[in-house]
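stage 2 :: seqdesign
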C-alpha cells in the first residue's frame, strides 16, 4: 500500500509550538501543543507545555509619574483632576500648543524643508540659538569658543552625559538633591554611575534646607559632580535665592567639584529667560567648567518632540573641541543623528525677532497663569482652614510644581476620596489646575492634611 502524507493546518500559539509525529501508516500529524505516541496499536495524545524563556522576568513596578496618568484615565468620576503630569494646561485644562510654534512649523512647510539626516552634532542654527538663550549672546564663553553644544533627545540628555562621565571620569560620583525629579535615580542607576544625596528639602518649614545642602556639598569627595536644578526645582518648587546661589558656587569652586545643571524650565518659571538662567550664568562667569542639560519641553510646549541640548563649558577652546569630538563619538553608536523637527522649531523662533518676541509674550502668559492659580489655591486654603497652619510656603515656591507637605497616606486620600491624582511624595502640578478647581483642591488638601495621618 502506498504511503501518504497528511498535513493538518493549525493556528500557532506563542507558548505552545507545533509538534510533528508520525503515526501508523506513515501519516504525519502536526499538532498545536499536542504530542501523539503509538503503543500496541493504540494512539495517545499528551499535551506539550513549552515554558517561555521570559518566565523569569518580573513585572516592573508602575512609573511613579506616568502611572498617575494611567490611573487618572481609568477613573470615570466627573470631578477627577490630574495634577501628576508636568505639562501645561489651559484654564479649560486642555493641552496647549503655542501659537508661535504653529507659525514656526508653517515656515518649515512653506520653505519645503527636507528630512535629511542632520550632522551628529545637530542643527547648527539650533545649537547657536540654544547657547545664546542659556548663556546670553554676549557671553565670553561663547566668544572665546569655550562652549560646545549638541542637539539631543530631551530625555536622553542625562543618559548621554552620564555615559561621558562613566567613560572619562570612572572614579567620579554624583551628588543629587533630596528629593529630585523622579527619573534621575533611574537614569543614574542604569548608567552605573554611583550617586548619593545632599539635603535640600526641609519638611519642618516646607522650604530649603540650605545649611544641610552646603554641609553635604562640602563633605563630598573633591571632584564630585553636583547635579543642580537651574530653576523651578522639581519636585519642590523651592529655589535658592541669588545670595544662596553665590554661596553654593563658592563651595563647589573651593572643593573643585563639577557643577552639572539640569535646566528644564528656563523662561517658564519666572516668565523671563534671563532671570531663569541666572544660576548657570553665575557659575560660567566665574570661569568654572560646567555641564548643562537643557530642554524645550516646557517653555515651548514641545513635549512630544523631545528636543533639548547638551552644553559643555570648558576652560579652553582646545579642550572644548576634544570634548565635542568624544561626545560625537559616543553619539554614533547610540543614535547617530538627532531629530530635526523640534530643533527647527526652536531655531525658527529664536532666529526671528518677531517670533522671538511673541514667544516671550506667550511664556509670560503661561507663567502668569500658573502664578494666578498658585495665588488662588493659597487664598482658598487660607480662608477655609481655621487651624492656624501657615500655608505661605505655597507662594514662596516657583514654577509649575508645589510640594504640599502631604505624606503618602494623605496623598492616597486625595486620590481615593477626592479623585485628585498626584505623585505619592505630595507634589502637585499647578499647571494642571484651573481657577474653577482651586477651591475643590483646597478642600481636599485641608481634609487630607488634618484628617489623615
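stage 2 :: out
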Amino acid at each position: 500500500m502506498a504511503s501518504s502524507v497528511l498535513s493538518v493546518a493549525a493556528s500557532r500559539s506563542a507558548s505552545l509550538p507545533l509538534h510533528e509525529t508520525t503515526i501508523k501508516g506513515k501519516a504525519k500529524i502536526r499538532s498545536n501543543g499536542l504530542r501523539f505516541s503509538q503503543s500496541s496499536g493504540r494512539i495517545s495524545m499528551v499535551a506539550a507545555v513549552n515554558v517561555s524563556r521570559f518566565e523569569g522576568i518580573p513585572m516592573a513596578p508602575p512609573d511613579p509619574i506616568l502611572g498617575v496618568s494611567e490611573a487618572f484615565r481609568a477613573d470615570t468620576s466627573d470631578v477627577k483632576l490630574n495634577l501628576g503630569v508636568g505639562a501645561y494646561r489651559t484654564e479649560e485644562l486642555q493641552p496647549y500648543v503655542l501659537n508661535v510654534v504653529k507659525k514656526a512649523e508653517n515656515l518649515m512647510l512653506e520653505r519645503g524643508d527636507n528630512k535629511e539626516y542632520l550632522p551628529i552634532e545637530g542643527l547648527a542654527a539650533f545649537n547657536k540659538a540654544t547657547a545664546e538663550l542659556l548663556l546670553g549672546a554676549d557671553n565670553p564663553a561663547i566668544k572665546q569658543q569655550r562652549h560646545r553644544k549638541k542637539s539631543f533627545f530631551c530625555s536622553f540628555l542625562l543618559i548621554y552625559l552620564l555615559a561621558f562621565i562613566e567613560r572619562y571620569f570612572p572614579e567620579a560620583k554624583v551628588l543629587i538633591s533630596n528629593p529630585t525629579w523622579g527619573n534621575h535615580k533611574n537614569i543614574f542607576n542604569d548608567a552605573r554611575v554611583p550617586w548619593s544625596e545632599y539635603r535640600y528639602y526641609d519638611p519642618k518649614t516646607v522650604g530649603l534646607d540650605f545649611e544641610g545642602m552646603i554641609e553635604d556639598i562640602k563633605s563630598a569627595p573633591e571632584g564630585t559632580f553636583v547635579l543642580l536644578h537651574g530653576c523651578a526645582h522639581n519636585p519642590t518648587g523651592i529655589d535658592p535665592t541669588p545670595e544662596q546661589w553665590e554661596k553654593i558656587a563658592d563651595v563647589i569652586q573651593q572643593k573643585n567639584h563639577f557643577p552639572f545643571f539640569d535646566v528644564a524650565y528656563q523662561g517658564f518659571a519666572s516668565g523671563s529667560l534671563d532671570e531663569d538662567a541666572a544660576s548657570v550664568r553665575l557659575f560660567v562667569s566665574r570661569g568654572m567648567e560646567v555641564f548643562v542639560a537643557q530642554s524645550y519641553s516646557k517653555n515651548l510646549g514641545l513635549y512630544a518632540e523631545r528636543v533639548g541640548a547638551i552644553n559643555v563649558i570648558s576652560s579652553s577652546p582646545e579642550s572644548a573641541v576634544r570634548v565635542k569630538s568624544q561626545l560625537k563619538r559616543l553619539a554614533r553608536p547610540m543614535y547617530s543623528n538627532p531629530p530635526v523637527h523640534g530643533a527647527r522649531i526652536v531655531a525658527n523662533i529664536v532666529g526671528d525677532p518677531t517670533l522671538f518676541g511673541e514667544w516671550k509674550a506667550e511664556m509670560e502668559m503661561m507663567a502668569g497663569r500658573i502664578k494666578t492659580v498658585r495665588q488662588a489655591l493659597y487664598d482658598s486654603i487660607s480662608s477655609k482652614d481655621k487651624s492656624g497652619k501657615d500655608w505661605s510656603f505655597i507662594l514662596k515656591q516657583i514654577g509649575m510644581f508645589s510640594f504640599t507637605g502631604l505624606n503618602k497616606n494623605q496623598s492616597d486620600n486625595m486620590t481615593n476620596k477626592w479623585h485628585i491624582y498626584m505623585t505619592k511624595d505630595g507634589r502637585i502640578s499647578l499647571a494642571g489646575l484651573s481657577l474653577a478647581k482651586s477651591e475643590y483642591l483646597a478642600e481636599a488638601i485641608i481634609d487630607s492634611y488634618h484628617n489623615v495621618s
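stage 3 :: structure notes
- The radius of gyration is 28 Å.
- Residues 173 and 194 are 5 Å apart (CA to CA).
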